[in-house]
TrEMBL record, chains A, B:
Keywords: Cell shape, Cell wall biogenesis/degradation, Isomerase, Peptidoglycan synthesis. Pathway: Cell wall biogenesis; peptidoglycan biosynthesis. One of its GO terms (biological process) is cell wall organization. Provides the (R)-glutamate required for cell wall biosynthesis. It comes from the Bacteria. This is Glutamate racemase. It holds the Pfam family Asp_Glu_race. It comes from Thermodesulfatator indicus (strain DSM 15286 / JCM 11887 / CIR29812). One of its GO terms (molecular function) is glutamate racemase activity. SUPFAM superfamilies: Aspartate/glutamate racemase.
Amino acid sequence: MIGVFDSGIGGLTIVREILRKLPGYRIIYFGDTARTPYGTKSPETIISYAIQDAEFLLEYGAKIIVVACHSASSVATEALRERFPDVPIFEVVSPSVKKALAVTTKKIIGVIGTRATISSGIYQRKIAAIDPEVKVYGNACPLLVPLVEEGWLKKPETRRIVKKCLIPLKIRGIDTLVLGCTHYPLLKPVIQAKAGRRVRLVDPAEEVAIEVAEFLKANPRFEEKLSRGDEPLIYVSDLTEAFERVARLFMGRRITLLKADCEMSHIIKPHITKTG
Amino acid sequence: MIGVFDSGIGGLTIVREILRKLPGYRIIYFGDTARTPYGTKSPETIISYAIQDAEFLLEYGAKIIVVACHSASSVATEALRERFPDVPIFEVVSPSVKKALAVTTKKIIGVIGTRATISSGIYQRKIAAIDPEVKVYGNACPLLVPLVEEGWLKKPETRRIVKKCLIPLKIRGIDTLVLGCTHYPLLKPVIQAKAGRRVRLVDPAEEVAIEVAEFLKANPRFEEKLSRGDEPLIYVSDLTEAFERVARLFMGRRITLLKADCEMSHIIKPHITKTG
């Protein structure tokens, strides 16, 4: 199976894209809705969550892993590759960087994402490693995730907040904008309108699906290991009606969410002297 | 010590109020920032988190527990009392209900809160048990938490979103409005303006602090067990600069956050046959 994990439901945009590019392969997804979101949390916490998420997928038979979450891709990819050296691990930052560099003409690229993604500075580092002349400007837009999850895709409040998020990037003269969070592609029309028609949007979901497809073509040894199946298995660590509604929004159709059997034991070890 | 827990940082508004009403008592706080927010999650998940949070406080020496989180107060209080029968457990719903009933004249009360709090219907049930003639209308306003956490307390977008949240309650003719989430008191000026001057706002932080003070006065046996100390001990399960910034916002002054030594082992037990 192709394993995909995300901090929540947003990664389903990537499942949708993989199904489009690689029909017939069985996908297993894990959305950590019990601890969502990751983007406001520290790198250490995100890394420990990402490792558990990957373990879930491998335990269920995934042969390759796609990190759909930008925050986890930004801070946890290295730790995941160290922990699971035999598993091909794909993430959303590298293919987005590749695409952004391919389409920018003025060599000024903007990135929007969660606080964790933007503070990591990963886009700047990865782009500088390939072409140090390219200027990269990032802006954290934490309000966009809750707006999308409320389904407020076209409301005036959303338009205003998107506009505000883009101002610091527009004044830098970007010609390319990476949508650095799984939720943002749902805001494409508003983002395109506020960024300006000439700004090229990079949707990481499309790029990572292309990368996985190319990898499988080049590596039949992994391709052979993948099972076939039409309907993806979508597991979540917490299940509510709201999550089901958001899942429909992201997949563009009704989809069954399965509750993963998790034990949320966040074992607390006191390490101070009792004083009370 | 007086133990206070919350899904995150918001419960510090309650610490602030308890410090004001009960100066000199030592407070220990646990904010579950590694899994925040709770309000979007299922009752089962919130209950399991709340029990762990209470265990942390008791382990560190808390003698009474205040559930600062409205979502946990709404869905987990009963489970907490069953699990810890010897510990006095306070929560934010009951004192807010008492206050709302005391101040309403038209007997039409509005409640705003997270999705978990509003869906639980707890305000309706508790109020109906005391005065079945009172009408209670709730509305979930999930966007207000991220707006407060961004520090957007007075921005035009916040005003518009608050206005939208209150419309369904205003058309019902409410004369009293319960701020059913730790974050909302920071929006008091905007909420008061949009609700109308005649609507009385109920701030649960104040009410729960009064309830704890009255309990200690009436129960010297518990009062004697409480240790003294000026500065509260504020523990969090995840620590970032953004959480520190929000903590300052809620406490109205600089405050040290201590990282609790948690093991976030969300142990996943596969229960399907491997197919990949």
